[in-house]
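fwd from M.: "can u put these together and see what the complex looks like"

so here's what she sent:
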Amino acid sequence: MTAKDDLLEAVAEVLARLAEEFAFAEPGSDAGLLPVNALLMDLEQLPAQFLPASLATAFARPRAWIDATLDGSGKFDAVTLGLLHDWHGWVIDCLMSESTGGPAPSLPESLLETSPADAAELPADAEPVMAEAASVPAPVPAPAVVSAPAPVALVEASPAPPAATAAPADTNIPTMVLKLPGDLELLREFHSESLELLRSIEQAVLTLEENPGASEAINAIFRAFHTFKGSAGFLQLLSLRDFAHELESLLEVVRSGEAAVTRAVIDAILAGADVLAECTSQVGAQVAGHNPGAPIPVPGASVLALVTAALRGEPVAAAPAPAPAQAAVPEPVSVAAVEPGEGAVVAAPVVQAPLPKPAPTTSREPAVADSFVRLDAAKLDDLVNLVGELVVAQSFVLESGEVRGSPNLELAHAVRKLVRITRGLQHNAMSLRMVPVGGLFRKMTRLVRDVAGSQGKQVRLVLRGEDTELDRQLVDKLGDPLIHMIRNAVDHGIEPPADRLAAGKDASGTIELSAFHQHGGIVVRIADDGRGLDPARLVAKAIQKKLIDPGAQLSEQEALELIFVPGLSTAEAVTDLSGRGVGMDVVRGHIESLRGHVDISSRLGAGAAFAIRLPLTLALIDGLLVGLGGQRYIIPALAVRETLRPRPGQVSTVHEQGEMLEVRGQPLPVLRLGRALQRPARISKADEGIFVVLESGSSVVALMVDELLGKQEVIIKNMGEAFSTQTLVAGGAILGDGSVGLILDVDALLRAPRTPLQPIPGPWAQAAAS
Amino acid sequence: MNAPAQLRPGRYLTFHLGASYYGVPIRDVREVVRLGPVTVVPMMPAHIRGVINLRGTVLPVFDLRAKFSMAAVEYSDRACIVVFDMQDRPRQATAIGTIVDGVDDVVMLAESQLAAPPDFNGALESDYLLGVGATAERPITLLQIRNILSTEGSVVLPSFNPNAAVRGLEPP
């Protein structure tokens, strides 16, 4: 994925969150104002040089409206909201045209007129779009956020003139200004925290110099940069944040194992830490009262250039530690070159042990080894659960009207601090339970060798992304399905050597087991280069087993999905089939019980791949709370693309296809939650409902609910065996008032029939009376 | 299905549905809570009412009237949820709450107050019964509640007259 794709994805995410906020915003209320403000700032601070010009200017547009609102009544008014809505729709259109390559949409009329709010000045036109300022992704100063006399929190002093032509290099150094005395306490904390971080970076670098394979040390450095970024962002030290972010993303390459830890890389890390240290010490000085308010330069560009250069250097060959063992590891050069673009794979193309493992005799990194603590897993789970409860309890407090509506600035300050600490605590607690999948993956090596050996096949197992971390509970439960699928891949996927040679393939087959992050979740992928699945034979088998109608017209993908149908995939049913059949329905059930999802892809003769998508943790989810007929349901926010109130006419009924909601020219099938659940809804007219656009894999549906009630982080509680037949409900969660809300299973909803099959029954009590 | 429980002297919790009186061994009962709002789980059979929050855990709630195919009533404020342990080992126990019209008492039943259920020729239904007991007030039907709750669908209790069954037992 290119930087630009990343960026556009980030933009899309912010826009989706804005849509959520707008759905709650009402004239005369301040609900959502601060989140909207923060999200808009996020957009403005994206590195403009990577953005299409149309978007970069678009992002700055609402600034004046929001500032006017913040400086004025502090509440949304109808005009501003209208403008924001139009703007939001337009930006989304811009984004669409950007990704499809179509023409940029023209500005809607409403936005052309000068609104009362932006009579003063529209910063959009004045915004300096830094054209090719540097080849290195230097942090771009956000547009000077100045609106009249009101002192803006932190002004990014941007030296770049509107017509940024040939500015001398040194004036391009971004700076930051501390907000003293307002943030004094926070800055003091930031200072001491940063010193800690710098120490840990130093420590880790020392470890790394002795043993370049110490992934723990790389992770520590990565985490430190990450924490730096978070704290700096929180304090609006944007140049610093951007710098730390760039360091972090560059190091991601090292962490994922794509590049080796060379002397140059270590030097670059140290140089980056030096910049951070310099900034930190200046922050410390200002906090202590020296020269407060002076802009602090963040001279990051040269360091980033250094890092980039270091990473570009011949990665493996330049590795300092000689690694004789590596010779045995097949070098997947061709694979490493694969850009994980559309449908392709991975962020971390590395074969087993990207870095030379410390030989048994090598000194183990003492600093790291000494600091491990053995710990009862149950205690750890208790801690994580308690922290989960804390996060939920906190959200009750934050969402309470009294806290939200309080004009008390001190309270707001204290709340922000509390939020920050809780987040840190949560992050920490969660990370305690995260373990790398490498251990599980390596168990498969043995399995592959044994199974292949017993069948006279030659199979090589390639592991990638072993450092990817996953909730321990998930790792434990992933074992069985994984064994199953790997065994199948060897059993049925990989051909005997003679067949492979006859097919023009290498005599030994390859199974690739990889793990990587995607869309806030994790993907574990098992791909082989065997014979692949034969859709025609699957269909024939399904017809023979009377699982499908003989006349059924299935697409190739649907035919492949047959492998998950219970009854087809029993061992004796498919031993002669090209597929892997042993209980794939069981595997899918297992994965879905982990709130995951299995996708299949295959090319006949070339191999098959299964992608298991999992949430990062089983403990907590971000939920969207919706109401239906007086009951509340929780939709996992990961699956929500946007929410919207339809305009009249936006919903239409298509003959024999049911209702469709048109969103930006794309008709989406409507699923009424009331019908799916066979529960009475309060709102029956589609125009009056609220639509939650759900997305999973390639399916999209517009789910109609009565109302949106809020967002909440919830702890998923298992509901017990009694509800194992209820596939639409993934679990329960305790809500703020102590009642239980049901968490909907999005994948099951997407599979639910969309046309009403039967009349909606009355409330349960009546059904029971019969 | 659990191993057949023994009819043993000891303490029993008694409750009623309409005019039918039942008892369950107290060791199967985890607690009794007041019937509050229950979150209805859609598309479940009538006897599975929904879930409640029991001190932070999500507890399934069954409707015993529906389970026994009795007519639904408007529950009064005497109605309770009896929480049953479904397994012997408490650490892994899964619990199920069951709505009843009202909980009456905890009674001590001695050997002399207990009788095995009438012989139904080994019919499956007898798995649902422990026996009958004679309390001071009335005869009660003693239930094998775990077997009842772990059976899918509704349960038909064998029809017999507890009054006749306790004849010969001495009331306390």
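replying to her w this: The longest strand of chain B covers residues 10-17.
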